[in-house]
Design brief:
Layout (H helix, E strand, L loop, with lengths): L1 H20 L11 E6 L2 H10 L4 E3 L9 E6 L2 E7 L16 E5 L3 H10 L5 E7 L2 E9 L5 E5 L41 H20 L1
Parallel strand pairs: 1-4, 5-8
Antiparallel strand pairs: 2-3, 3-4, 6-7, 7-8
């Protein structure tokens, strides 16, 4: 029984690896910008400049509609002024659609929001002993903004994460109707994954040098 469980998990991991490797390379470079419609261009510009530190940049002169381009942190924000924007602003819900920015001083940003009378909520995410602080608030039109120190959390592809198997003796007596039901048993070992990724990097560098 134990070997059957291991084989099932190995087969699932192999199918995932095969599906990823079969995808053609996508010739993309990076996130360029996000675009929002807004009811007041000047108000939204002030928000993204004063609160988030963006700067106004030139937009194409051929555009015949009201808007603005802002840029910072390697990403752009494009604003388009329209008369009727669906009302989005309500209770701050961290699970709502949002854009997220990394921050190196969360307390400083919280003080800034409080000084500007901007409502916000906070949350903390824990994974393997790593703590990530999150801060959520709305822009003037109700779009959700997240600020976090997410750089604390390593970015690990699932294909590099080994499977964590629990002992058959410790499993629940309730039978699983599908393998997906036990997906919580598959967890990443960060240190092992880092080692595997480093080994792959060294191997690739050796291939290049040869």
């Amino acid at each position: 029984m134990g070997r059957e469980i291991v084989s099932a998990e190995e087969n699932l991991q192999q199918r995932y690896n095969d599906s990823v490797s079969s995808y053609p390379q996508t010739p993309m470079l990076a996130l360029n910008h996000v675009s929002f419609v807004c009811t007041s261009l000047s108000r939204s510009i002030r928000f993204y400049v004063d609160v988030l530190g963006f700067i106004l940049i030139k937009r194409p002169s051929s555009f015949d509609f009201e808007g603005a381009w802002l840029f910072n942190y390697g990403v752009g924000i494009h604003l388009l002024e329209v008369e009727n924007v669906p009302v989005k602003k309500g209770k701050i819900n961290p699970k709502d659609n949002h854009i997220s920015f990394q921050c190196y001083d969360m307390k400083r940003l919280i003080r800034k929001l409080e000084n500007m009378k901007i409502e916000y909520v906070t949350a903390v995410v824990e994974d393997g002993g790593i703590m990530v602080d999150q801060l959520f608030f709305h822009d003037p039109d109700g779009y959700m903004i997240e600020i976090c120190n997410c750089e604390n959390l390593p970015v690990l592809p699932l294909s590099s994460c080994p499977l964590k198997l629990s002992s058959p003796n410790n499993r629940s007596t309730v039978p699983s109707t599908s393998y997906v039901d036990r997906s919580s048993d598959i967890q990443c070992s960060i240190e092992v994954a880092r080692t595997a990724m480093l080994d792959n990097l060294i191997s690739n560098m050796m291939d290049i040098s040869i």
